[in-house]
Amino acid sequence: xxxxxxxxxxxxxxxxxxxxxxxxxxxxxxxxxxxxxxxxxxxxxxxxxxxxxxxxxxxxxxxxxxxxxxxxxxxxxxxxxxxxxxxxxxxxxxxxxxxxxxxxxxxxxxxxxxxxxxxxxxxxxxxxxxxxxxxxxxxxxxxxxxxxxxxxxxxxxxxxxxxxxxxxxxxxxxxxxxxxxxxxxxxxxxxxxxxxxxxxxxxxxxxxxxxxxxxxxxxxxxxxxxxxxxxxxxxxxxxxxxxxxxxxxxxxxxxxxxxxxxxxxxxxxxxxxxxxxxxxxxxxxxxxxxxxxxxxxxxxxxxxxxxxxxxxxxxxxxxxxxxxxxxxxxxxxxxxxxxxxxxxxxxxxxxxxxxxxxxxxxxxxxxxxxxxxxxxxxxxxxxxxxxxxxxxxxxxxxxxxxxxxxxxxxxxxxxxxxxxxxxxxxxxxxxxxxxxxxxxxxxxxxxxxxxxxxxxxxxxxxxxxxxxxxxxxxxxxxxxxxxxxxxxxxxxxxxxxxxxxxxxxxxxxxxxxxxxxxxxxxxxxxxxxxxxxxxxxxxxxxxxxxxxxxxxxxxxxxxxxxxxxxxxxxxxxxxxxxxxxxxxxxxxxxxxxxxxxxxxxxxxxxxxxxxxxxxxxxxxxxxxxxxxxxxxxxxxxxxxxxxxxxxxxxxxxxxxxxxxxxxxxxxxxxxxxxxxxxxxxxxxxxxxxxxxxxxxxxxxxxxxxxxxxxxxxxxxxxxxxxxxxxxxxxxxxxxxxxxxxxxxxxxxxxxxxxxxxxxxxxxxxxxxxxxxxxx
Length: 775
Description:
31 strands; 6-stranded mixed beta sheet; Aldehyde Oxidoreductase, domain 4; alpha+beta; disordered N terminus; 7-stranded mixed beta sheet; 28% helix
């Protein structure tokens, strides 16, 4: 086990080493363990800075997250095992984005080891990592790429040195391939045989040279996911699959209004008498029922008679929340004065959207008087550990928080609601619990992307844009997870207009930019209203901000009589963005003749050290809009998507393509169908059957994702990069197909085609007619 105290403090200044030469450590132990010296991880030289850059062009959110992680990167280690495999505990959360696969590829590359011999697990909460255990902002590969490579390269160097002694040869004459080292005379030694021989009894500093990109044999090649077989055969373990001794199924009865709280249980004895029910306790978020099965939990939750205190949004509707938020809108900045200039302006509304994942919110907790153990899918496990310890009145080191793989997150698992709730329930019951939120809980009491508006104004003189101003106003985005630890979490927890708004403004400024030559560019953020459970939904502010921006770009192009693609191309000031724009225009056949009521839309996005562009074709003809699909929201249909992505260095092009396909469906959903409806202080939606994410009947039959050739020696972010451009392209296509610029999103928000499920009881009965709903 690595003792953090055994490592020298990281250097504060860059060492005098070459571009690919780094220093690191061989950790003392019985088998080979290698770590990196983070002091060497200075940024590569930047390209020329454009004139009048926005903050995100000089220093973006990924720079912040990467630099915050640097001081503890030397605590990340690669271990060689005696069976010839390599082990690595990744201090990030695998939530379906494929980072265990890409991380295994990075290690396999530097070690010259087959990918299937690299075992990547998820590290439990490690408070000594501080800011280095937060999964968000598409930052995992950006921040871990070099540290992991250095640790793996050091391990390989030690193996070669041990092999040279064993085989009676020189290091320079040895060849490492597929976990075997061969000498010129044909004698060999496996990594497994060398694992103990290469170990060092003490920690020592060594230098190492990383592979040149031209030598890569794994990185940059399409790879299947290392967990694909387990996922499709049902053997992959998620939180509710865990078998923890005496941890019985547990569910919570929640208030009929958002964030209501229980005052009393009127029929506790009756519920305890139900088959299988073992415990009923009241906590601050509801009334928990523990039983032998989840079906019995549902029966218990439905049987409860609870007296509730209404939540702070009681009686409120969409219109009320919007009116409340609009009061916080800031005056639009004055445009430059020019008597010959004309103004183009528009305002857009983006309704609440659910941040539920397919893998419902869940956690296992075993709380005892002298300690606690938690299992959950967590993207910020350190702050979860700190907050749970404080809630339980235990020292932090007496709370173990284990990170479990999850089936989706999209920002949702930055919050540890289920883990905290499970800990409270376990403490109150004095027993282990396996908590699972009902689908209705996720939609009604879970996290949502905030309701917001975006107002945009531009000043035109002739064919030139003199100024471009955007004012974005939103229900507060909750950042109370901070950067994954207690200090920044407490800062983000300050009331709106104090710490939290400062935190939100920082995120906004470090993610948003308008990559066009539009003269004086200004983007502002105002947030208000803390009554709702919100979070950093996939791509945070960018989908809404870029949708408003790109719709305005189309409006400006029309105003000056220019083709939308040509107008963008002329005014873009970033060559990587221009390249992806050109690629989708070429492959997607921009400008081809299409029937009336159908159209193309094109849009770009720049973030996460990369660039993306999307070209879509939409069918908004009456026969398509009015098509009938049982229990569906149909409307316009995107029929074709061409998407190009440049992430710098693509570690796994196949995984990147899959991520973009998911982003594309997210963008279509945001534009057309998916939203929550606030009525009488609660959200109407209560499951996936009445929350209309992109379904089969709205998924485009033709999708082509183009991974651009690598434009950098460093990888960019990918997990969120495709949402904003797709959302904006669909909106632009709809405007061109219908002749009307949409002002509310999703455009089908006011079309409610489902019967609302019961709120008292708060969850519906378990279905017994599932086969009746299959096709």
